[in-house]
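Lecture 7 notes: from sequence to structure.

We start with a single chain of 145 residues. Read the sequence below before looking at the structure.
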Amino acid sequence: MQFSIEELSLLIKQPKPLRLTGADLRLANLSDADLSTAHLSRANLSRAKLVGANLISAHLSGADLSNADLSFAILIYADLSTADLREVNLISADLRSANLSDANLSGAILSRVNLSDANLNGAKYNLKTIFPDGFDPIKAGAILE
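Now the structure, written as tokens:
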């Protein structure tokens, strides 16, 4: 089920934690939304706009975030394990202590991203993936495919 703009506005105003596990949020504009602690595991957020969104401690394991715009998003302690982050824009996002284990980062743009204490064990990336200057993905446990 895809949500209308009005439905999305009502949903994000619901008491926390917001529960949208498996929801179809393709192309949704959730920029600057407070989605902290939201349950978005296995949600389809492909091509969604989440610029500046607050996703602190959000549950995004197995979510499809391919081609989404998460620039300037706050993802501290977010669970992105096994998430599809292909071609995602994460420029200037804050991923401190985030769990990116086994995520697909192929073609992702992570310029100026804070990855302090982030878990990248088993995360897959390719030669198109752009990491922050000085960041060593192999040392962090990521796998070049």
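The first strand starts at residue 124 and ends at 125. Keep this in mind for problem set 3.
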